[in-house]
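Hi R.,

Here's the chain you asked about this morning:
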Amino acid sequence: MNALPAPTVPDLLLGPLRPYAGERVAVGVSGGADSVALLRALLLVGALPVAAHLDHALREDSAQDAAWVAELAAGLDVPFGTARVDVAAVARRRGANVEEAARRVRYDFLARTARAHGAGVVLTAHTRRDQAETVLWGLLRGEATARGILPVWGRVRRPWLEVPRDDLEAFLRGLGQAWREDPTNADPAYTRAWLRREVMPVLRARVPALEEALARFARLNAEDDAALSAQAAALTLHAPLRHQPLAVLRRHVAAELRAAGLAYHAPHVETLAGSLHSGTTRHLTLPGAHPVTATGGRLHLGPLTWPEPDFTLPSGWTRRTRQPGDRLRLPGGTRKLSDVLTDARVPREERGRVPLVVDAGGAVQWAGLNPPLWAVGAREQVGAMPATLHAAMGEALALAHEAAGAGEVPVGAVVLDATGQVVGRGRNTSREHGDMTRHAELAALREAGATVGPYLGNCTLVVTLEPCPMCLGAAIEARVGHVVYGAVNPKAGALGGVSDLLAAHWGHAPRVTSGVRAAEAGALLRRSFQAIRERERGGAEE
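And the predicted structure, written out as tokens:
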């Protein structure tokens, strides 16, 4: 065959292929104009292509396409790989439509061919027309992200997504190169053919630059999607998801579902992201009868896990799950356990799995929620066996009360060593010293450093209020292993209350536990600030 001199070929075609010069690549070659042009153009830039043809067995004469491509490859002295798969049968077995089954089977075959020939990448000849049709179909289906065909997907590369189909045909005619036309491309029973023959011409008559506009739309959406997906990937386990934009949450949900190997549709993602954003509870069953729950600002991709008692049960107390008539005595009065679980946004399907501890009379004393819930007076009956963090937060709260009594912002902190012993204490003394760096955490860390040493990797910082950036930075510098806080800091919280500094890479990232005795810490803050405001109003009146 006569080759057209490379300099006369438009750079729009050859430019994206030059990075593959001298490289072994697998090329999907159906026999159509797009794939034949890609094969010929790769040879012009000095690439080492392997022609890979999959016979989908969807037409009686499909074997003729395979023979044609084999003859083309032989004439070009190009290695050739082929296979025949009954795609219609595969679609029936998988419960998928033929087009989707064909796509999956085709990419599996291309990957196998690439491995067999030592090719590092797979190239496909998708053009701007394919991109425009894909974007339009995605919009019609209501897909969450209209990013179209990605230029890079695993080892697959699509270098011609910006190339018009007409340019390829002109290139082949200049070469005197024939190609095959697949009859199914004219069958409107197939979505792609319907769009190409019935829909696109009508739109193009009104909008001549339709393909270019849709391809640009796809490119810009792909760039936006990449940026938002990067934000979603940076979310840490402790980051409050309710503070994230819905666009980020949708990508977070989709990434979590993909990582778990779960099938889903755009409405599933939208529903779960909306639940995370609002803090409500939604329970969905994904394709394959897989349960997924969003509750309390967290996503659960299987049955929820509930805390088990971490204390020794007093004599006569037992662990069980709920029974009709269960009630729980709380500071505001005794309530039905069913109402408590509803308020805690426990999915109906999970309420029978929540661990309970009841006394000898059957009264509920403890419920294994997140965090666990104690009945009034129950913790005192457990005696010297409360959870370590609860006791440590109690000491931090006592220090916070001291700060409140001195007219300071009521924050207290303690540092525990590896055995759970307190090795550092501190309370806020900023007003007393006229120094806004006199935070409780810094005082506790200094005292712990003097006892344990400068690095506190085996220590736990327990503080009543979410640390600010300054205090979190000090904890990171000291290599604190675990940070525990009570109330969220909506003004300067560095662990998600305002920003999530641990989303950046500082060389060390402590484990974080939030919400320990948060109600007590929050109530103390509210009372203290109310008292400060009243004093300020009284001073102004005088």
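The chain has 18 helices and 20 strands.

Let me know if you need anything else.
M.
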